Amino acid sequence: MMTGKGANDKVSGGEGSSVRVAQTTAPPLKRPTAGVPSPAVDPWLVRSFGSDYLQADVFDPRPVIDRFGASLLANHFDLEEETVDGERVVTIQHESQAVLPTLPRPRIAEQVIASRLELVRGIGPVTDKRLKAQGVGSIVDLAPSWRRTQSSKAHVTRRPRESVIVADPRRAGLVRFADDAAEVLSVIEERDFGRIIGLLTGRMAGRGHVLSALVVALAGIENVVFFDLETLGLANSVIFLAGIGRFHGKHFTVTQRMALGAAGERAVLESSLEALAGADVVVTYNGRIADMHWLVGRCFYNDLIPPGDVAHVDLVYGTRRRFVKDEAVLSDAKLTTVQIQLLGEERPDLDVPSWYIPRLFTIASTHGMEGLMVPVIEHNCSDIEALVSLVEVLCGEAVNYP
Amino acid sequence: MTSVTQLLEDQYFYRNNIVHRRRESAATPLFRQPKRPLDVRFVRYLDEKRLELYASQADTIDAFRAGHDVVIATSTGSGKTLGFNLCVGELLAVDRQATALYVYPTKALTHDQAERLAELDEATGLGAHPATYDGDTPAARKARAREESRILLTNFWGLHEYLPQVSSLQRYLSKLAVVVIDECHLQRGIMGTHVAFVVRRLQRLCNRLGASPRYLLASGTIANPGEHAAALIGREVYVIDGNGSGRGARTWLLWDTMADPDRSLTTQAAAVTAALAKAGYGTITFCGSRAGAEFVAHRASELSAGAPIGVYRAGLLPRERREVESKLRSGDLSAVVSTNALEVGIDIGSLDVAVVAGYPGTLSGLRQEVGRAGRAGQDSTALLMCDRDPLDQYWVRCPDALFGAPVERAVISLGNKEVLRGQALCAAAELPVKAEESGRFGVGLTAAVEALVEEGQLRQVRGAWVYVGSDRPASLVRIDSRRDDSIEVRVADELVEIMERHRALREAHSGAILFHGGSRLRVISLDLARAIATAEAIEAREHTRPIEVRSFALGTVEVERPLGNWRISLGPVQVWTQVIGYKIFVGDELVGMEGLDLPQSELSTRGLWLSPIDPETPAKTLEQRLLGSLHAAEHGLVHALSFLAMCDRGDAGGLSTVAHRFGNGCLVLLYDGHEGGSGIVEMAFDRFEELTALTLEMISGCDCELGCPRCVFDRLCGDDNQPMDRPGAVEVLSSLIPIPVT
Predict the structure, then answer these.
(1) Closest-approach residue (CA) in chain A for B462
(2) Which among A40, A260, B308, B332 has most CB atoms closer than 10 A?
(3) Can you tell me the distance from the alpha carbon of B565 to that of B613, in angstroms, rounded to the nearest whole number?
(4) Region A182-195: what's the mean pLDDT?
(5) Which residues of B touch A (CB under 8 A)?
(6) Phi-psi region for residue B131, left (φ > 0), alpha (ψ -120 to 50) or beta?
C-alpha cells in the first residue's frame, strides 16, 4: 500500500486539507493505546502510514465515539455470535440494496476479448495496427485451423467468411501467430479465468486491466465474490474483518465476519477461504497488493493453506487507467473518490477513513466499545457495494475501449 | 630502486619517525585438493581461471561436505570467497531446486560479489541467476529475483526488512540450503547482537517452510572466530584457521608522527604518499575519514610533481570505482588514497606499499589494509603511521604486540534486553512466538514478550504470542546501534557519523572538536530537536574537552569474584551526565573555556566495577595518590577494553571515585556505552586478568612522569585528566593479577 503512488483507497482523505502533520520523534515501540487520541498529531499514524498520512486529512474520532461509544453491535445489526478462543467473532448479513449490474452477455465479452490481437504473443502495437489494416479483426482470423469443441458453450465463433479478408494466412505471413492464437482462443473457450486475466494484464498492461472486468461478465455474476478486508495495519497485520458480497439471483448479500480480538482472526480467514473456494472469480479494489496479498500472508502466519489460484480481478488498475490516465474524469483512483465522482454514490453517514480503521479497532478493543465498529462495518459494506457498480461501469467501458 | 626505508629516511620531512622495522618472510603457498574431487564443471572453471586450490580452501570444502557449519578465519587474500563459492556452487549443482543466501556488510561489497557469482554461474552453467536484493534493487527486479534466482545477495538491514514479507519469499526460503555470512567479525556489538537474532528469525521461518540451511561464515583475523560465529548462528561451528595461501615477504615500518609534533598526521601522510609515488612505488594510503583522504590526496598531488594520485572513497559510483581500480592496475595512477571504510572488497591488483595513516582501530582492519599490497606474491611494505592516541603509541612502545597472536575478540550480547524485546516483536510479526522458543532466542524471551503484551503489541492466542500492532515492526527496530534519538553529524549536508544522543551531548556539542578518522571537525551547532549536529572540517591543531558533572547508580550485583585485594562485580548501572561547558586546547595548552546549556542525559546499561575488599588497604598504600591512580587505571582499562572488544573509544566509558557509598570507599567503574549493553563488560568480567595485563603493557612502558596523551590521558575526559597518576595505576593493576608485568 505504501508503494502505491497516491491512488488507492486504503489511505484516503481529501485534497487540500489545512492541517498537516509535523515530523515527530516518538520513541520506538511505545504508542499510545489508552485514552482517546487527539485529533491533531498522532505519531502512531505517522509511523504507520508514513507520508501518505501526511497528505491525509486529520480525522477527529470524537463524533464517532459520541454516537457509537456506548452502543452495542446488536443494536444496529442482526448478527450471529460465537466465541473463539475466548474472543467474540460475529457474523453479519446485509441484504444489500445493490442492484444486479447490467453486464455484456458472455458472447459479447468473449468477442471483445478475442478482438484484442495483442493477446497473441509477438503482436505489439505496430503489428496490431498493420494487421488491422489488413482486415484482421479478431484472433479467430489468425487461427484458421481452430475450431471450438462441440461441448463448449463458448461463443468465439468465426465471423462470416466474407469478412475474413485474409483467406490464406500463409501468404500474408500470419502463420507464425496461428499456434499462439489458437492457444489464446482455447483459454477463452475453456473459461480459464485466471489465465484470461493473466493474458490481458500481462500482454496489454494497463489497458488489459480495463478489459479484465469483462471476466466478471464471462463468469456470470453469481459465480463472482466481491471481497474486502479490514486489517490492523498495512504490513502483514491481523485481519479482523472480511466482507464478502455475492449475488443470489437478483439479490446481493454482503456477509461480514468480524473478530473482536486477535484470537478470532483464524475464523475470519477461514470464512474468506471458504468463500473464495466456492467462487470462480474474486473482485477487489487494490486487492493485488493489499487484500489478496495480505490473505496469503496471514494464512502463512496462522498455518492455514492459502487460497489456490483463484481468478482475481482487481478493479483499481482499470479504473486508474480509464478514468485518471486516459481521461481525467477522476482526481485520483481512491475508492471513495470513485464512489462520489464516478458512481454518484454517497459514503455512509459518519464515514471513517480507511487509514483510521486500525486505530478505531484498537480504541474499541482497549475500551470495550464494540459500537465503534458500526461505522467500520458500514464502511466495509459500502466498499463492497461500490465494487458491483464499478464492475458495470468498467465492463461498459471495456466493450467500447479503443 | 632504493628501499622504501632508505627512500623515506632521505626525505626532507624525515625526523627519525621510523621507530621499528620488521620483516615477515615470504611463505610458500600450500596447495591441496579436496578429499573427493570437485565436480568437473568447477574443475574446468578453476583451470580456465588458472586457479589452484589452497589447503584452506580444500579444507573448507571437505568440512562443508562433511555436514559442518564452517567459519573460515584465514588471512586476507587467502581466497575465502572462492572457498565458500565452491561449496555453494557444488550444493546448488547437485540440488537444482536448492537456494543460497549471501549476506555482506555493505552494499558495495554485495555488488562486487554478485558480479563474481554471476561469472561463476555462467561458467559452470549452474542456472542460479545470482541477484542482489537490497534497498537499491528496483521492485521489478526484486520480483524477478524472487521468481527465478537461486542465489540472493543482501545485507542484514535488508534481511531484517524482508523477513516479515515471508509469504512472497516462500519459494526461495523453502529451498534455502546455505547461508553465507561474509566478514562476520564486523557483526559485533549491538549490531552483531541484532544480527544474531535476525539469523534466528531466518532459521525459524525456514524451519517452518521445511528448510534447514547450513552456514558458511568468513571472518577477519580475530581471537575468537569459532566462538563468535557460533554465537551469531546459535550452534557449533567448524573453524578453518590454517592458511596456506602463501605471500611475498613483507617489511613492516612503524612510523611515529609524534617525532615531528609540528606536522599533523594527514600532512605527514601526504608527504609520505607523494615521496613513494614519485619514486615509482605503487602505493595505497588509508585514512580514517573521507575528509582526511581528500586532504591527503590533494596535498600529495601537489607534492608529487605530477605523479598522478587518485582518491578512492565511499560515495563513488561503481563505474568511478572501477575506473580508479583499472587506472591503478595499468599504472596510470601511481598512488591512491582510500578511506578505510572501503577496506573490504577492493580489487586493485598488486601494489608495493600500503600506508596506514593512523591505527584503524582494530588489528583485523589493519591486516586487511596492509594486505592490499603484495597481493600478487611480490615483496611489499606496510607502513603504519602511529598518531598521538594511547593505542597508536602502544604500538610504538610495544611493536611485538602487533605481530603476536590476535587478541581482539568480536563480542555480542544475546542478553541485551532491549535488543531481544525488539527482535521478539519482529519474530512475533513473522510467526506466532511460542514459549519453547526460548531455546532459540534465550531465556529472556518470556520477559520480553510479557513486556510487549503489557504495551499492547502482542497478545497471547492459543498458547502463542501474536503481533497485534499496526506498525511494520522492522521499521520500529533498528538493527544498528542507532536509536530514534541518535544524532547525525553532518559536514556540508553529508552524513559523517551517527552518535547516540548521550554521546553527542559530550562529543558533538556546539564548539566541540570532533575527531573523525585522521581529520578534525568543528561542530558549528547541535540541534537536538532535529537530531543533527552540523560540523565543518578544520586544519587547526586545537581540540576540546567537555566539562561535565556525572553521577551513577549501581544495580544489584549479578556476579562477583575476588581479585587480589579487590573484588570485581558485574551488573546493571545507570549513568547520568550533564555537560556544562568545555575547554579548548591548542596542543596541551588551555586557551579557552566556554559554558553550555545542555540537558542531562541518562544511560541505563551494564557495568563492571572494581572495589577493594578491605577499604583501608588501597588508601594506606597510595594515600593522596589514590584518586589519581584509580583515574589513570580507569582510563587505561577503558582504552584496553576498546582494543580487546574491537569497539570505538566511545563504546565504553569509565568512572572512578574514592568516596562511594556502595564501593567500600573507592571504586573504578567500566560501563558499556550502549543502552542495554553490547556485551563488552561481560567479556571484560570473564577476561579481566587478560584485560589488566594488556592495560599494564599499554601504560607501564611510557616515559612520562604521571601521565600523558600517549598513555593514560583521554581527550574526552570530563575531569580534564586530573588528577592522574600513571605509576599509581601500575601499582593498583599489578596487585590484581598474580604475575605482575614488568
Answers:
(1) A85
(2) A260
(3) 6
(4) 92
(5) 139, 164-168, 170, 421-422, 425, 429-432, 452, 455-457, 459, 461-462, 466-472, 475-478, 483-485, 529, 531
(6) beta
pLDDT band at B148 (very low <50, low <70, confident <90, very high): very high
Q: Which residues pair with B560 in a beta bridge?
A: B569
Nearest by Cα to A209 from A319, A324, A337: A319
Helix (H) or strand (E) holding A208: helix A193-212
CA distances in angstroms from B96 to A251, B126, B131, B148, B177, listed in the order given: 52, 8, 17, 12, 11
Angle at B702 between CA B698 and CA B708, to 5 degrees: 95
Burial category of B610 from C-beta neighbours within 10 Å (exposed 0-12, middle 13-18, buried 19 and up)? buried
Task: Note whether B552 and B692 are same-domain residues.
Answer: yes
Q: Smallest Cβ distance to B461: which of A30, A236, A262?
A: A262
- Length, in residues, of chain A: 402
User: Cβ of A306 and B139 within 8 Å?
Assistant: no
> Cβ–Cβ of A232/B425 closer than 8 Å?
no
Task: Determine contact, residues B10/B3, Cβ cutoff 8 Å.
Answer: no
Reported as type and span, the H/E element at residue B619 is: helix B616-622
Q: Using DSSP, state whether B362 is helix, strand or coil.
A: coil
Dihedral pair phi/psi, residue A26, rounded to 5°:
-75, 145
In chain B, the number of structural domains is: 5
Nearest by CB to A29, from B168, B422, B462: name it. B422
Closest CA of chain B from A122, distance in Å: 21
- B455 CA: distance to closest CA in chain A (Å): 7
Q: Are residues B20 and B67 in the same domain?
A: no
CA-wise closest residue to A197 among A294, A318, A101, A332: A318
- What fold does the segment set A44-101+220-399 form as a domain? Nucleotidyltransferase; domain 5 (3.30.420)
Distance from C-alpha of B214 to C-alpha of A211, rounded to nearest angstrom:
48
Q: Do B477 and A235 touch (CB under 8 A)?
A: no
What residues contact residue B320 under an 8 Å CB cut-off, 6+ apart? none
On chain B, the residues whose CB falls within 8 A of the CB of A359 are 470
Partner residue opposite A28 with nearest CB, options B165, B470, B484: B484
Residues 6+ apart with CB under 8 A from B137: B131, B145
List the domain range (segments joined by +) for residue B697.
548-585+596-732
Return residue ranges of chain A for CATH 3.30.420.10: 44-101+220-399
Phi, psi dihedrals of residue B505, rounded to the nearest 5°: -60, -30
Q: Flag whether residue A308 sits within 8 Å of chain B, measured between CB atoms.
A: no
Kindly determine whether residue A263 and residue B461, on different chains, have CB atoms separated by under 8 Å: yes
Contacts with A25 from chain B: Cβ below 8 Å:
484-485, 529, 531
Among residues B668, B732, B670, the alpha carbon closest in space to that of B696 is found at B732
Give the pLDDT confidence score for residue B1 in this predicted structure.
Answer: 58
Q: Are residues B57 and B204 in the same domain?
A: yes
Share of chain A above pLDDT 90, in %: 44
Separation of alpha carbons A135 and A141, rounded Å: 9
For residue B215, name the pLDDT band (cuts at 50, 70, 90). very high
Between chain A and chain B, the number of residue pairs with CB atoms below 8 A apart is: 90
**Complex ipTM:** 0.78
With bands split at pLDDT 50, 70 and 90, how would you rate the model's confidence at B239? very high
Which one, of B436, B417, B437, lies nearest residue B427 by Cα?
B437
> Scanning every residue of chain B, which has its alpha carbon at the shortest distance from the alpha carbon of A264?
B461
Interface touch A238/B468, C-beta < 8 Å: yes
Does A14 contact chain B (CB < 8 Å)? no
Q: Between B688-700 and B390-397, two packed helices, what is the crossing angle to 10 degrees?
A: 80
- In the 8-state DSSP scheme, what is residue A338? I
**Looking up cell 606499499, which residue turns up?**
B353
